[in-house]
């Protein structure tokens, strides 16, 4: 079975250095905001995004050596990801993240918003200091996409008319864009051709979409202990994801309880129980596996080597989170 331990073993030293550098990059600036950004250093973080960067760097860089610029890009990506989590928890009024109290629960909403802003600002500073305009353009777009994704999610709260296409577009803005753009930026730093840059962008996009679909399935199927936050959090907030959308097609009775926005305390549990009786979860799994396969095909067809085989372990790990 693939575990996070053997998954990251080829890049353990890089991940260890990343964790140490993140603490220095953030902690030295402001003690309060550092404390508010503690998720950045939580052991619950899977470090999937920086690991993708390190593996892609090993595939694309001259002599297969990870460059200092790749390492800094990985740090920037993780800071941006954490900033988005801090803001997400405020928007969704989520009290728990990775088994810890969320920033706005520990401090207050004002500090949480400022902490998220601080992290975005820090990432922008370090991004500018890479002195690579193409990478700056590529990664800067991510922050705009995050805002677009949050707005779309807010406008479709409890909207039972949302389509799978709408959901996938929102998932791209909220999750896949960071992964896609960081994969592309890795290839840019390796001085790869435009075609190779676009290949890794496509890889990251499909990987990111699969990752989000699987997260949304786990929100329905997993426990609070497994998730590090209450199960059904997205559903409770009116965020209708793939399993819900597919279940609505099969069981129209779900429309009534969702349209009433879970007025009764047991409504979320009842809805989850009814979703599990449909093929919604299986259809969502199938869709996630399709995107993972598309990501795999890009690597196997164009970048097959020792390091790419190790990159494939991450794809397997994502799918095996179901089991």
From TrEMBL:
It comes from the Eukaryota. InterPro entries: Isoprenoid_synthase_dom_sf, Polyprenyl_synt, Polyprenyl_synt_CS. Pfam families: polyprenyl_synt. Gene3D superfamilies: Farnesyl Diphosphate Synthase. Signal peptide: none annotated. Keywords: Chloroplast, Isoprene biosynthesis, Magnesium, Metal-binding, Plastid, Transferase. Its cofactor is Mg(2+). GO terms for biological process: isoprenoid biosynthetic process; quinone biosynthetic process. SUPFAM superfamilies: Terpenoid synthases. One of its GO terms (molecular function) is metal ion binding. NCBIfam families: prenyl_cyano. Belongs to the FPP/GGPP synthase family. This is Prenyl transferase. The lineage of its organism: Eukaryota, Rhodophyta, Florideophyceae, Rhodymeniophycidae, Ceramiales.
